[in-house]
Amino acid sequence: MWTSRQSGVDLTWIVRTRRGGWRTVKGRYLSLAASGAALCLTAVTLTGCGAVGGLTGDNEVTLRVVAADYGDNPQNSSEAYWKDLATGFEKANPGTKVEVSVYSWSEVDAKVAEMVKAGKAPDIAQIGAYSDYAAAGKLYSAEELLSVKTEADFLGPLADAGKVKQVQYGLPFVSSTRLLFYNEKLLADAGVIGKDAKGWQPKTWADLEAAAKKLKAANVPTPFALPLGREEAQAETMMWMLASGGGYTDNEESYSIDSAPNVKALEFLRDKMVGQGLTGPVEPGKLDRQAAFDGFTKGEVGMLNGHPTLLKQAAAKGIKFGMVPLPTADGSDQPAMGVADWVMAFKNGHRQQSGKFLDFLYQPKNVTAFTEKYDLLPATTSGYQAKQAATGGSAPQLKPFLTALPSSRLYPVGKKSWAGVSEDIKQNIGKTVQPGGQPAKVLEQIATAARASDPR
């Protein structure tokens, strides 16, 4: 039963959680120092589709999987990947059938929610968040599902991000980080870099401001695109907070949205970027991520924060670009933002079969097939090492994103309250950077509501 819906999406999800758990983590997870991958991301994109009945024929079990579509047209739909995966698994596991339904990112979360509400949860699901289902006791833990080899292969911080109350329920599958993209020609024409210069390395926000002023003087329509619209305001906001030494949570994983570094970040954007007319004609609060990407591929945007999806989009339009970490407030090293997608298995009585399917999914060849198809980063040690060693295709361009993974920080997706907090940010953060905006007041309001929804 294959259904496919056209879609294209960024990936969105990002988390930072505290390490712990009663299992022997250090012995089971690859040392971050040894792997060079101290990832702070967690993600997966797999989904199990509702198991009503489940037994067919001679006690044959049917696993129902729901997955998100990472393609942006019918030709590169994720349906083909899941179909091949299911066929390979069925061949190796007689007696277990796999039915996959693939939906666009704009509808897959709602589809799974409807199935769960109707008592027909999928066996495995690849969606944007897992914590609500984990908190409701609807998911198997990683320990209940996976072989020791599979569980040990997750990059440690990603696995940590999949935990609720020290138990891992979210299984990271693919990940991504964000970097600052810049149009080489526009910066060269504006005198920011030499005509044949490569390797621009801005270190501070002052460097960024100076470059944006030169781009404005050269009549670049949007010197720096600042997408704080609803599509992904929570991501753009987090990047600037991290660059200021802040973030959505503190070291104890409590919400710290109204911290001084966070206020400082938004005041810089209000006064130095928006206030000086360096962010283009569209108000940041009304500018979505894809619209900013479109402007960059048209040669109208000098700089913006982006993810690997922009690589192909810009190259297809002949844009020559460079990528660097987002400069920080004072030039000190700060973590980049990472994102991840999640796989989870619902308690439908098919624990053993679901576990076998997930072990199969996380085999290195299957992880590599998916990440290479969509220019994503892996969430496993074996996948990370393979990506580091790769030299063909888009591998060289992905290396800067891969390098940023070790210190990346994710959204606090392990918190059941995060979905509501994220929505609050999407609705209100844009107004903080407008002339007369009040970052401290707005962040305090968001933080107060966040803490109230997250009793500890």
Question: Mind sketching the topology for me?
Answer:
Blueprint: H1 25-28, H2 32-35, E1 55-56, E2 60-68, H3 79-92, E3 96-103, H4 105-117, E4 124-127, H5 131-135, H6 142-145, H7 148-153, H8 156-161, E5 163-164, E6 167-168, E7 171-177, E8 179-183, H9 184-189, H10 205-217, E9 222-224, H11 233-243, H12 260-274, H13 289-297, E10 301-306, H14 309-316, E11 321-324, E12 338-345, H15 351-361, H16 364-374, E13 377-378, H17 381-389, H18 395-404, H19 418-428, H20 439-452
Parallel strand pairs: 2-3, 2-4, 9-10
Antiparallel strand pairs: 1-2, 4-12, 5-6, 7-12, 7-13, 8-10, 8-11
Helix pairs in contact: 11-12, 13-14, 19-20
Under the CATH scheme, the architecture of the largest domain is: 3-Layer(aba) Sandwich
The helix/strand class is alpha+beta
Helix content: 40-55%
What's the total number of strands? 13
> On the 0-100 scale, what is the average pLDDT?
86
Rg for CA atoms:
22 Å
Number of domains: 2
Instruction: Determine the strand fraction and express it as a percent band.
Output: 5-15%
What is the CATH topology of the largest domain? D-Maltodextrin-Binding Protein, domain 2
State the helix count. 20
Uncertain runs: 1-53
CATH class identity of the largest domain: Alpha Beta
Overall, the morphology is: globular
CATH superfamily annotation of the largest domain = Periplasmic binding protein-like II
